[in-house]
Design a protein that fits this description.
Pathway: Pyrimidine metabolism; UMP biosynthesis via de novo pathway; UMP from orotate: step 1/2. It catalyses: orotidine 5'-phosphate + diphosphate = orotate + 5-phospho-alpha-D-ribose 1-diphosphate. GO terms for molecular function: magnesium ion binding; orotate phosphoribosyltransferase activity. Helix content is about 40%, strand content about 20%. It has helices at about 5-15, 50-70, 80-90, 135-145, 160-170, 180-190, 195-205; strands at about 20-25, 30, 35, 40, 75, 95-100, 110-115, 120-130, 150-155, 175-180. The protein has a six-stranded mixed beta sheet, sandwiched between helices. It has a two-stranded antiparallel ribbon with strand order 1-4. β5 (about 75), α3 and β6 form a beta-alpha-beta unit. It is globular and about 55 Å long. α2 (about 50-70) crosses α3 (about 80-90).
Length: about 210
């Protein structure tokens, strides 16, 4: 049985433990977009930890089945969603494809790599959801190729309102193993952050594009 609260907390613990997630409310990071952020998430680090990698593979596989039902294929989103998606496909014994960030500039000019079979029901795997725009570009590419996208599953989401709205507008379901709220709850309970920092971390999510300016 998929115990969502328990899994949210376990994944949050793992990500903090291996420093896949770093919290620095008083010394913020600068994202590629230029946004200032008190959190940095790099879920690729999970791949270097076999027991954690296995747990995430298993739970993403269960999440796909619980949330989206039977699917014919798993698709990973370039680049960080590719290894996670391949692991899920292996766990479920399903074909795997992946979606490029942009079409190849040589050869066939493909956006999707692997055997493309229009009409199949596909679950998309991503490592992280911020605004959801890059993930939804992959969803659109799959739909353009004739796939029926059952939904998208990811390891972690920041929980931005913009992401919820973008997925809603795209008519695409999504679900994640853990999220920013669960992370803050775990971090406070286990002394990873001070209670005084909680307000700073909470305010960031309310307006991430202007926070720290």
């Amino acid at each position: 049985m998929f115990n969502k609260t328990e899994i949210e907390q376990q994944v949050a613990e793992f990500l903090l433990q291996i420093k896949a997630i770093k919290l620095q409310p008083n010394n913020p990071f600068t994202w590629a977009s230029g946004w200032k952020s008190p959190i940095y998430c790099d879920n690729r680090i999970t791949l270097s930890h076999p027991s954690i990698r296995t747990y995430i593979r298993q739970q993403l596989s269960v999440l796909v089945q619980e949330e989206f039902g039977s699917v014919d294929c798993i698709a990973g989103v370039a680049t960080a969603g590719i290894p996670q998606g391949a692991l899920v496909a292996q766990e479920l014994g399903l074909p795997f494809i992946y979606v490029r960030a942009k079409a190849k500039e040589h050869g066939t000019g493909k956006m999707i790599e692997g055997e493309i079979i229009p009409g199949q029901r596909v679950a998309v795997i991503e490592d992280l959801i911020s605004t959801g725009k890059s993930s939804l570009q992959a969803v659109e590419s799959l739909r353009d190729a004739g796939y029926n996208v059952a939904g998208l599953a990811a390891i972690f989401t920041y929980g931005f309102d913009a992401a919820v709205e973008n997925f809603k507008n795209a008519k695409c379901r999504f679900s994640t193993l853990s999220n920013y709220s669960a992370l803050l709850k775990y971090a406070e309970q286990h002394g990873d952050i001070k209670t005084a920092d909680l307000e700073i971390l909470s305010k960031w999510r309310e307006s991430p594009s202007t926070w720290g300016q």
